[in-house]
């Protein structure tokens, strides 16, 4: 009888120790396992007056508990006076855990529209970091800006969307034609 109780106690101790090991390693593994996936994802942000401020869309969104959220073919639209002003598309993207920073990764294509929805400006670059609350974007990559008057090239760019201000950081050169 004592042998049976001792064996039972040893087996129970062994099971508890193995269970503790499994539980202690599962949070590390959960970083790499998604907790949900959305297809045709869309998120909107409103301004203080209740008007549309921005819209983030993606073909697919994969959310991870302790890591950044991944986006497939994201598009970001910024609005002013209820009209789309900037449309930014990328190959892929990531969102920070607090939803404030968005990384538009791979080739990133920007289009700026006038109030009557004519394309005014086009920007082609890569790997853009965007702060959603302040609508500030930056990249250290080569940038090409195209408008009706010509092209401008630079390395690195900062965009202050509400102020409609673009700063080109280095190696700036351009070709312009007067109409």
Automatic annotation (TrEMBL):
GO terms for cellular component: outer membrane-bounded periplasmic space; plasma membrane. GO terms for molecular function: glycolipid transfer activity; lipopolysaccharide transmembrane transporter activity. Pfam families: LptC (PF06835). Keywords: Cell inner membrane, Cell membrane, Membrane, Transmembrane, Transmembrane helix. This is Lipopolysaccharide export system protein LptC. It comes from Thioploca ingrica.
């Amino acid at each position: 009888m004592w042998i049976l109780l001792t064996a039972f106690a040893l087996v129970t101790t062994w099971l508890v120790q193995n269970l503790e090991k499994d539980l202690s390693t599962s949070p590390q593994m959960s970083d790499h396992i998604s907790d949900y996936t959305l297809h045709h994802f869309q998120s909107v942000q409103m301004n203080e007056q209740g008007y549309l401020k921005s819209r983030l869309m993606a073909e697919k969104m994969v959310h991870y508990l302790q890591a950044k959220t991944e986006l497939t073919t994201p598009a970001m639209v910024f609005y002013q006076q209820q009209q789309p002003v900037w449309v930014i598309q990328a190959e892929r993207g990531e969102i920070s855990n607090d939803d404030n920073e968005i990384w538009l990764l791979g080739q990133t294509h920007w289009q700026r529209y006038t109030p009557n929805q004519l394309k005014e400006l086009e920007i082609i670059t890569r790997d853009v970091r965007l702060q959603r609350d302040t609508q500030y974007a930056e990249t250290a990559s080569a940038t090409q800006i195209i408008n009706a008057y010509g092209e401008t090239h630079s390395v690195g760019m900062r965009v202050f969307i509400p102020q409609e201000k673009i700063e080109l950081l280095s190696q700036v050169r351009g070709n312009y034609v007067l109409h």
